[in-house]
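Most newcomers find our protein records easier to grasp once they have seen one. Nothing more is needed to start thinking about how sequence determines fold. Here is such a record, shown just as it appears in the course material:
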Amino acid sequence: MPGKPLVCSIRNPHPITIGDPRAEFSSGCAVVDVTFPSTKSVDIGEITFKNNYTALLSIKLKVREENEKEVEDQAEIDGETTLTWVTALKNVQLMPDPHCEDRAQSYFCIKRDQVDGSYDINLLSYT
């Protein structure tokens, strides 16, 4: 049973450049920043999206470290919260060949149990 959608803010893709940002070189990689403004922490059950000619996908999450959860109340009192970036998925293949259009505009669904240590592309569903 699918859960209800979360309210989020999705920024436009920001291209990653190498070296001088004024140079004409583009790496072909981009970052899409998704934030959840109405809540301090979120419980994501699944991520569903339509591909737009992306061959590989990596997902990074900003989380509290385990030892910081114990001092969370004190950090909130002090007005400081330290978060760490962790890689949830790394280089998951969305398209079998980046030079062809197979799965270039397919819908993908990544479920929570697929992120907990199992990054096999066979676990990623698409239509």
About this structure: Residues 118-124 have pLDDT under 50 and may be disordered.
